[in-house]
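Practice problem 4.
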C-alpha cells in the first residue's frame, strides 16, 4: 500500500482518489477551496426551489468511462435520461430560433432530407453540404483548426450558420484556433477511413446500431446518449468523495512540491483559514488542478514540463441562471437549448432550458434557463458586472423565447480561467507533457486540460493515472 497525495478535488481528482483506494492505496486529497467539485457544483437546494447546476448538468454515455464508474458504485438507479418532449436544439437564424436539422450531429450530416428542407442554409449552401461526398480527403496528417476542417469539407455557409455556434456552445472556443484532432478526432478518423463524412454516415447506417440511429435522429446532439443524477451533479461527486472521509482536506492549499532523495515526494500544505503550514511526505502525487497551477507547482521540479503546462491557455465564462414563466414561452421555442452564430451578434453563446432536459428540476409552471456567456468567443463580456450580464441575458431570452415578465429567480455564476483551450497542435503538446511527466517516478497529471473536457474523458484519465501508481 502506497500513501498518495491528490491535489485538487474536481471530478478528475475525486475519481483518481476513488480508483487509488480501490487498488488499496491510502489517499489524502487536498483542496484549496471550501468545497469539492471544481467546476462542477449544484446550488444549495435550501437557496432555491429549483435544481440548478453551476457547471456540467449531465454526461455522455457514448464514451463508457463515466457510466462504468456509476455502475461500479452501484448507482445506476439514481441516474435519469433526458425527457422525450422538446428533444431538439435550435439555432438563431436571422433573429429567430430555427431547429437544427435532424440528423446533423455536431458537424456530420447523416440524413439528406432535413438538410434540403432547413431554412438555415441557402440553396447553394445545401448543395455545398451535399458535395461533401465528393470532396477529396486530406492527405496531410498535420493538425488543423475546426474551422479549416469544416469549411474544407462542408463549406463556409454551413460552418458559419451551424458548426461554429455548436462548437462555441460546447467548447466556448474560437473555431479558427480549436484543434480538430483534440476536440473532434472522430470526424478526422471518418475522413481518413471513409474519405467523407457523408460516406461514413452511409457506412454506419448499414450497421443499424443504436449508436448510429442516435446520430441519424440527432438535432445537434445525441440526447439519448446523455444521463444525469436525479439529485444533481454535486450529489454524485459527494458519493465519489464519501469513502475518503476526513482524508478529503478542504481549505488546504498545496504551496510547494518536491522530490525526496530517498524516494517519494514532499508536499507543503497551508491551512487557508489560519495560515498554518505543515510538510508531508508521500510515495506518490497526482496533480488534478488546472495546468497553469500544476505549472507553478512543478517549476522547481522540471522546468520544461512546467513550461509545457503553462502554455495551455484558458478562457473565463459566466452562466446567467433565470427562472421564467412557462406560459410566456412561445410553443415553437420550447426545446432543450439554443445556440447563436457569431454573425447574429448575440451576447449569449448558448441558452439551455435545463428544466426541460431532465424531470424534477423545477415546478411545472416554470422553466429554468442557463445562458452561457463569455469564453474565448466573447471575452470582453467578462469585464461587465453581474447585474449587467443578467440584464443582457434576459433581453435575449425575452426576444428569442417571447418571455415578458422578469425572472422569478436569477443568479450569475462566474468561472474564472476554467475552460482550457485546445488550440491547434494540442495533441502534440500533450504528448510531450506526458513524455516528460512519465520520467517522474510516482507522479500523475489528470484534468480537463489534456485529453478531453468532458466528464467521461476526465474519468478515463483518472483511471489510467491511478493504474500507473
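Answer key:
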Amino acid at each position: 500500500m502506497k500513501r498518495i497525495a491528490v491535489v485538487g478535488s474536481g471530478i478528475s481528482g475525486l475519481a483518481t482518489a476513488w480508483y487509488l483506494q480501490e487498488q488499496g492505496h491510502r489517499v489524502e486529497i487536498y483542496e484549496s477551496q471550501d468545497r469539492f467539485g471544481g467546476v462542477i457544483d449544484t446550488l444549495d437546494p435550501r437557496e432555491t426551489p429549483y435544481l440548478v447546476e453551476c457547471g456540467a448538468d449531465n454526461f455522455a454515455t457514448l464514451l463508457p468511462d463515466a457510466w462504468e464508474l456509476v455502475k461500479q458504485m452501484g448507482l445506476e438507479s439514481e441516474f435519469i435520461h433526458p425527457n422525450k418532449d422538446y428533444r431538439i436544439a435550435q439555432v438563431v437564424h436571422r433573429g429567430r430560433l430555427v431547429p437544427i436539422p435532424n440528423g446533423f450531429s455536431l458537424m456530420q450530416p447523416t440524413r439528406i432530407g432535413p438538410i434540403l428542407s432547413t431554412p438555415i442554409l441557402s440553396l447553394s449552401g445545401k448543395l455545398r453540404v451535399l458535395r461533401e461526398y465528393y470532396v477529396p480527403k486530406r492527405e496531410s496528417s498535420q493538425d488543423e483548426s475546426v474551422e479549416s476542417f469544416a469549411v474544407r469539407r462542408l463549406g463556409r455557409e454551413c460552418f458559419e450558420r451551424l458548426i461554429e455556434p455548436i462548437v462555441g456552445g460546447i467548447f466556448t472556443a474560437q473555431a479558427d484556433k480549436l484543434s480538430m484532432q483534440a476536440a473532434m478526432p472522430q470526424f478526422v478518423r471518418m475522413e481518413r477511413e471513409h474519405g467523407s463524412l457523408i460516406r461514413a454516415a452511409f457506412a454506419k447506417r448499414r450497421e443499424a446500431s443504436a449508436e448510429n440511429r442516435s446520430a441519424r435522429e440527432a438535432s445537434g446532439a445525441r440526447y439519448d446518449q446523455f444521463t444525469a443524477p436525479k439529485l444533481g451533479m454535486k450529489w454524485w461527486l459527494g458519493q465519489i468523495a464519501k469513502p475518503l472521509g476526513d482524508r478529503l482536506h478542504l481549505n488546504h492549499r498545496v504551496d510547494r512540491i518536491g522530490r525526496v532523495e530517498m524516494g517519494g515526494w514532499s508536499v507543503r500544505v497551508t491551512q487557508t483559514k489560519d495560515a498554518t503550514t505543515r510538510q508531508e511526505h508521500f510515495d506518490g502525487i497526482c496533480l488534478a488542478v488546472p495546468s497553469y497551477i500544476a505549472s507553478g507547482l512543478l517549476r522547481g521540479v522540471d522546468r520544461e514540463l512546467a513550461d509545457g503546462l503553462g502554455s495551455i491557455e484558458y478562457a473565463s465564462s459566466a452562466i446567467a441562471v433565470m427562472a421564467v414563466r412557462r406560459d410566456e414561452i412561445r410553443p415553437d421555442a420550447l426545446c432543450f437549448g439554443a445556440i447563436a452564430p457569431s454573425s447574429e451578434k448575440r451576447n449569449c453563446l448558448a441558452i439551455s432550458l435545463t428544466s426541460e432536459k431532465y424531470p424534477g428540476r423545477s415546478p411545472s409552471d416554470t422553466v429554468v434557463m442557463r445562458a452561457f456567456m463569455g469564453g474565448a468567443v466573447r471575452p470582453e463580456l467578462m469585464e461587465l458586472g453581474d447585474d449587467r450580464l443578467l440584464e443582457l441575458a434576459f433581453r435575449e431570452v425575452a426576444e428569442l423565447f417571447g418571455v415578458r415578465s422578469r425572472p422569478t429567480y436569477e443568479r450569475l455564476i462566474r468561472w474564472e480561467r476554467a475552460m482550457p483551450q485546445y488550440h491547434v497542435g494540442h495533441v502534440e503538446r500533450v504528448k510531450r507533457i506526458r513524455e516528460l511527466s512519465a520520467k517522474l517516478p510516482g507522479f500523475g497529471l489528470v484534468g480537463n486540460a489534456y485529453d478531453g473536457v468532458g466528464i467521461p474523458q476526465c474519468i478515463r484519465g483518472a483511471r489510467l493515472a491511478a493504474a500507473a501508481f
